[in-house]
Each structure stands twice: as C-alpha cells, then as structure tokens.
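Lab notebook: predicted structure, single chain.

Context: the supervisor wants predicted structures on file for every construct in the current expression panel, including those that have not yet been purified. This is the next one on the list. No modifications to the sequence; it matches the entry in the shared construct table.
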Amino acid sequence: MQLSDFKALSFDCYGTLIDWETGILAALRSLRDRSGVGDEELLTAYGEVEHAVEVEHPGLAYAQLLERVHRGLSHRLGVAEDEVEAAKLGASVGDWPAFPDSAEALAYLKQHFQLVILSNVDRLSFAGSQRRLGVEFDHVFTAQDIGSYKPDPRNFEYLLKHLAEAGIAQGELLHVAQSLFHDHAPANRMGIASAWIDRRHDKPGSGATVLPDPMPHYDFRFTSLGELADAHRAEQGE
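Prediction complete. Output recorded below exactly as produced.
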C-alpha cells in the first residue's frame, strides 16, 4: 500500500492539523491554576469529560458543548464553576494554533489529493481554523452537520456517503488523524484505511483523547503531517 494509491485524504482537524492541546491549555489556564493540577492531568481529565458530554449531548454545537465541558471539569477538579471562563473556552477554538508543518504540508497535498475535513466541531469555530490552515478543503463535514460526535459511526457513514456522491469510493480514501480513539478505531470498524499522525510521540500518555480498548491498527504512521507529505514526495521520486 502506498499513499499514491489514494484519491482523497480525510482529516481530523483538532489534534492533527490544529494544536488543540496548546489551545486547550491556554483557554484553561485559570482553571488549572485554581485547581493546582499539572498540564497532563488536566488534559486527561479534559478528554474524559469532553467525551462524556459529547455522548450525552450529540446535537449540541461544539462551542456550547465546551461550556458544559468546562463546568464538568470544574466539578471534577473540585473548584467553583465560572461562567465567564466557560464561555471563553467555548469561543477559543478558532484561536487555537495550527501545527507549524500543517499549512505547508496541506498546500503540497492539495496538488495530489482531494482534501476533506471530518471534525468534531461546529462550522463557525472551524472558520477560524480554516484561515490558519491556508487551503480550501474540497469538503468540510462537521459534527454540527451530522448531529453526532466521533467516534460515533454515523460520522464515518456520513463521510463515506457524501464522498461516494462526489465520485470517491471507499477504497480511494485515506483517513488521516492523531486520535486513535475518535478516528482510527471507528475507521477500522468501517474498513477505511488510515494514517496515524502521532503528534504525541515524544510525550507520555494519550493527552486530551481517551485511550481506546482494544487498540486499533493503522496503515501508515508519521509523527507529523510534514512527514506524510515527504513520504508522498519520495513515492513520486521527488
């Protein structure tokens, strides 16, 4: 199997293209300071609380969902709720930084593939991230469009259905993502080939994502999107 076997790349955005952990920690700085927990403990708690809220409120837009996540984190960490801080977390998504390699790698990949977003986000929040990534995606599918959050299989069914309507068969699609829980596990169940962008390769634990059980498989592994682009260049003899 080679990268050049595929016609389209579908991306998780947050954690893969956008450095969501840096964005989350910046938005939760006050909560972290009030609770006294370290960054990794806070990210782990965030991942677990966020997933629970997504399961309970699958139709809630991500910005509003994050306000509930902030309240859940406050309860879990034993500190008082703060509605202003919660609103700031919900509004912060468009300000989260892109990984340094994302824009350049996407610009290269755009020359060879259709580029698709499949993200647990709302359209308004993604608009800010779109500007940071610097490319026009061929398709953008959000949790707001679908009415559920990954790893719900409905998100991947929606992806496959709409790409099929655009002339892209399942075997022509490679799903590119950091989260083994939100993306690779459901991609496995749907029979979609996947590439793991292991952004946390030099850090302990799974950060702001829940660790899946059993662990999924993946067809490619890279530590950055730039590595994936370089691997495609090598296939092309560049």
